[in-house]
Write a structure and sequence with these properties.
By secondary structure, the chain is an alpha+beta fold. The chain is built from 14 helices and 24 strands. Strands 5, 6, 9, 10, 11, 15, 18, 19, 20, 21, 22, 23 and 24 form a 13-stranded mixed β-sheet that branches. Strands 7, 8, 12, 13 and 14 form a 5-stranded antiparallel β-sheet that branches. Helix 5 packs across helix 7, helix 5 packs across helix 8 and helix 11 packs across helix 13. Bound molecules: protoporphyrin IX containing FE. The site of protoporphyrin IX containing FE (HEM) has 26 residues, from helix 5, helix 10 and strand 3. InterPro entries: Ccp1-like, Haem_peroxidase, Haem_peroxidase_sf, Peroxidase_I.
Length: about 575
């Protein structure tokens, strides 16, 4: 196996073998290999990614796995997909942060999760399907957009203020906004919604384009058409969104009067009677004539936009929603997904993020202070696996000289969103002979091998952090950092990739070069130590290790925090 410069287009294997053939044809074509015996089928580019295995092997594995019906989410590791998958499924600060479905302050009448859903819609609604501009790109974070009458209210500012910090180089601000809306719907009684990553954050505000309540039905139909939705889909999307929240007096005094209600201090007129829950009451109450929706029964007919929209097809769509909560839920799942996947031209979303059945997590791989041992902090998560104290899980790892070592894993506990998952890890970090190193991991579960269909879980130990690194808590410098470079590897550059933000808050990476040792490295030493050259006031918390080989750059570690190292003396 060697580092491949090829990029393979692989499409997630759904359920059918022909779909898989589709994927494999795409991959074959990308490799310029003949695909004579396969039926041609429409191809869709989904994701470009680089693997640490030869593309030919990857292709064959993908194809045969698909043909025998083994659906795979993606091949580990893939830094972006790993990060998106973890944010979607693992317990993490983002999911822990999301509030409950109840009103943020039960007496305010307002609910935070509704803000997140409305924020996602307003971000998307600038899309122009003809020109391919606007869409889910987090342009709603710009004060200029928020100041427009079409974006009245403080919900956008609040949402961005709360969620922006969860974005990073792999999960854009707009990915976070999309996932927040999805999680809000799913947690509050709604259907599962497909989540893709890969949105790209705008560098400036988009052209205006969010519909407003006082506008005519014709202009709303035209507006949704510009966004890429038919009239029927418009009715659906508005009903799906307006199953949450309501209209607040402060930004819309002409629609909702001051209520002077101690149980609704912000004077919010809700769209339905269950405004913190996803259900079809928005439709049943509308059809039964009991609705209090301020955009249906508001005193000012001009601003009754929901009334005009819902009745625009003779109430056919709303009747169908009222008759079937299941139809409403499945329609909303599809429409929300389309809304969130509406992106500017040129943005290539990932495949739908599904949980990896077996997912290692290399928290840290570093050379110890003696220079003779590699310390590996690793765990593995098995998705949809029930608890079983009698289960025996082993980690086997392969080294550079053809040896295999193993350790029995323990300390499992239940993790995961939506389904049961089990995480196993060695009792302590593994101490690996530095000369032998590590090239790949495999797992054994009650004797059954888990190795990604034979390719194993590759580990790169050519450029790793050195345990000589240390952090400074409060100082102009974040610490002193050293990178260990395997003597057999000949990188042209080695650097830290520090997480930072650009002038418009987009996550970026700042490369900080490391310098090689000035003295020649002794022949019997496995790693040379490179020193990272920090400028004054160059601060960061999160970083990865980067290396360049003959002009090809690659990230060599998971996201590390400088606090993983001891304080500097
Ligand atoms: C013609 C189209 C639409 C119009 C005119 C419209 C209008 C409004 C208005 C005036 C509000 C009150 C905002 C506030 O008081 O802060 C609101 C709230 C809301 N809208 Fe829409 N909307 C439309 C479509 C949509 C769509 C398609 C979605 C989502 C799919 C959506 C989701 C929401 C949500 C969740 C709220 C509640 C916000 C909260 O309670 O904080 N809306 N909408």
């Amino acid at each position: 196996m060697r580092l491949s410069k090829e990029s393979i287009l692989i499409r997630h294997c759904d359920n059918s073998a022909w779909q898989c053939a589709d994927n494999s044809i795409a991959a074959l074509r990308s490799l310029r290999l003949p695909a004579r015996n396969l039926l041609p089928a429409p191809l869709k580019k989904v994701k470009l990614w680089h693997m640490d295995i030869s593309p030919e092997k990857m292709l064959l594995l993908s194809f045969f796995a698909c043909l025998v019906g083994i659906a795979h989410a993606y091949i580990w590791p893939s830094p972006q997909l790993d990060a998106l998958e973890a944010m979607r499924f693992d317990p993490n600060p983002f999911l822990a942060f999301l509030p409950s479905c109840d009103a943020d302050d039960p007496l305010s009448g307002r609910s935070e999760i509704s803000d997140w859903i409305r924020t996602a819609y307003h971000d998307m609604a600038t899309h122009n399907v003809v020109h391919g501009t606007g869409g889910m790109d987090a342009s709603i974070r710009f004060a200029e957009e928020q100041a427009r009458p079409e974006d009245a209210g403080d919900g956008f500012q609040n949402t961005i203020g709360e969620l922006l910090k969860f974005s990073n180089r792999y999960v854009s601000i707009s990915d976070v906004l999309a996932l927040a809306a999805i999680t809000a719907v799913e947690r509050c009684g709604g259907p599962q919604i497909a989540f893709r990553g890969g949105r790209i954050d705008a560098g400036e505000p988009n052209a205006p384009g969010v519909p407003e309540p006082q506008q005519s039905l014709d202009s709303h139909i035209a507006s949704f058409a510009r966004q890429g939705f038919t009239q029927t889909e418009m009715i659906g999307l508005v009903a799906c969104g307006h199953t949450f929240g309501g209209v607040q007096h402060a930004p819309f005094p002409d629609i909702v009067p001051e209520m002077n209600d101690p149980n609704n201090t912000l004077s919010v007129a809700h769209f339905d009677s269950t405004y913190v829950q996803f259900d079809n009451n928005i439709a049943t109450e509308y059809i039964s004539g009991t609705t209090q929706n301020p955009l249906v029964v508001g005193l000012n007919e001009t601003t009754n936009s929901d009334k005009r929209i819902f009745s625009s097809d003779g109430n056919v769509t709303m009747h169908s929603f009222a008759d079937s909560p299941e139809l409403f839920a499945s329609t909303c799942a599809g429409l929300f997904a389309r809304m969130l996947d509406t992106v500017p031209n040129g943005v290539q979303l990932t495949e739908v993020i599904t949980p990896l059945p077996v997912k290692p997590d290399v928290t840290l791989l570093r050379l110890d202070t003696s220079g003779h041992k590699l310390e590996l902090l690793v765990s593995v998560r098995f998705w949809n696996m029930a608890e079983d104290p009698a289960r025996i899980v082993r980690l086997l790892w392969v080294d550079h000289i053809g040896g295999t070592s193993n350790v029995t894993l323990s300390g499992f506990f239940t993790v995961g969103q939506q389904q049961q998952a089990q995480r196993y890890s060695p009792p302590t970090s593994l101490s690996i002979d530095a000369a032998a190193g590590i090239t790949a991991m495999r797992f054994e579960v009650n004797g059954k091998l888990e190795d990604q269909g034979g390719i194993g879980f590759p580990v790169q130990d050519d450029v790793v952090m050195s345990a000589l690194s240390c952090f400074i808590a409060d100082g102009p410098s974040p610490g002193r950092f050293y990178i260990a470079v395997r003597t057999s590897a000949k990188p042209t550059r080695v650097y830290l990739e520090a997480e930072a933000r650009d002038s418009v808050d987009r996550p970026i990476v700042v490369e900080i070069d490391a310098v090689p040792p000035s003295e020649p490295v002794a022949a019997n030493v496995s790693y040379s130590i490179w020193r990272v050259g920090l400028n004054a006031n160059q601060t960061f918390d999160l970083f990865t290790v980067g290396a360049e080989f003959n002009g090809v750059k690659g990230t060599r570690s998971g996201l590390l925090t400088r606090f993983k190292f001891p304080p500097c003396e």
